[in-house]
Design brief:
This protein has 110 residues and is of the alpha/beta class. 31% of the residues lie in helices and 15% in strands. It has helices at residues 37-45, 61-69, 83-98, and strands spanning 30-34, 51-53, 74-77, 102-105.
Length: 110
Amino acid sequence: VEGEHPAKYLNSSYAKSRYLAGIEHIQGESAVMVEGIVDVYALRAAGVSNVLALGGATISSYQLDLLRAKYIKHITLALDNDTVGQEATERIGALLLKEGFKVSTAAIQG
């Protein structure tokens, strides 16, 4: 929309709430959770494995089921270090704890 700030990412036609980018590569019971697929690629390029992306700053019950189906028990939240990411870390972290996951946080520099 003219006059508004441009979006950080363009929306696509896939349902973000029904997908966790990179979950097919997770091995073991721990995963690093980031907001976007670009974050997954950047962390993998830096040597960090077991990274998956939410596709935004929210998590759905379907995505929680995907985590359970993959037997993931520990999530390290490494969401964006902006206000939205920080608020999402608190909200998603609390929900993950309530759902029985172990949760830690990490700050990604750069």
